[in-house]
Description:
This protein starts with 9 loop residues before the first strand and ends in a 16-residue tail after the last helix. The chain has helices at 41-46, 51-64, 87-91, 178-187, 245-253, 268-274, and strands at residues 10-11, 36-37, 66-69, 96-105, 115-116, 133-139, 151-153, 200-204, 208-210, 220-228, 238-241, 263-266. It folds into 2 domains: 30-236, Sandwich (Jelly Rolls); 239-276, no CATH class. By secondary structure, the protein is an alpha+beta fold. The strands form 4 sheets. A 6-stranded mixed sheet has the order 2-3-8-6-10-4, with helices on one face. This is Kanamycin B dioxygenase.
Amino acid sequence: MxxxxxxxxxxxxxxLATTASAPKPSPSPSLHRPPVVRPTSHEVTSGRLDERNLxxxxxxxxxxxxxxxxxxxxxxxxxxxxxxxxxxxxxxxRPKWTFCxxxxxxxxxxxxxxxxxxxHSDADFAHPSHPFALVVNVPLVTMTPDNGSTxxxxxxxxxxxxxxxxxxxxxxxxxxxxxHLRDRExxxxxxxxxxxxxxxxxxxxxxxxxxxxxxSDQVRIMLAMIHFAPWYRNPxxxxxxxxxKPVLEELDxxxxxxxxxxxxxxxxxxxxxxxxxxxxxxxYDFNQTP
Length: 290
């Protein structure tokens, strides 16, 4: 979802239309913030949430389609990731990790107009009506509206492809129809939150969202992984350098991986030479086989 998406641009100055026939209700303050779980130091050290925080995290994934787990990744070790907390509680034992990428919000070019993505869902195909995939995002810096944090439409993960303009393979795949945006905005407007560095964001793949302009002078990078339910028949595979193989095998042997990781192993030289030769955005097919 959050690799750079090649979609038709939508000008930020365009804004979002609202219904003229009825005034917008005043939402509660909580509607302007993403749901957050704050683990204790013991939970962070042990690598797992206690029962109460796990219940809270799972509830928000089902209710809102997204939850932020704060202070999970040590700032000094931001590249050494273990984002297995929570996802197996939602998807079932040993989810499949088959997508690993990053999303970069670039500073504007001189004289260019600020642009944004259309509001869209990454599930641009007929999909199950219950959770089947979670996007795991790790920001490498604190994300704010000032550097292009993603716009989120909480609670929209329970919609289907009838809300979308196009299906997978079309230019407008996953794009949400304007009528549904207006209707949803009157109930629960979108947010562009601040997410602290060191947090892990878990987002239902079906949730509406949009990449936003980065008006700062620094690139905003967010790592992106997808965990699929073990029963979900998506054939995607990772490609890793073979120097990582003993690392994953040792984590699995010690019971600390918690994931099924389908990998095509290549030499580390091949991995470094070709790692940028990947698709973008909706070129990926997250559907499952019949």
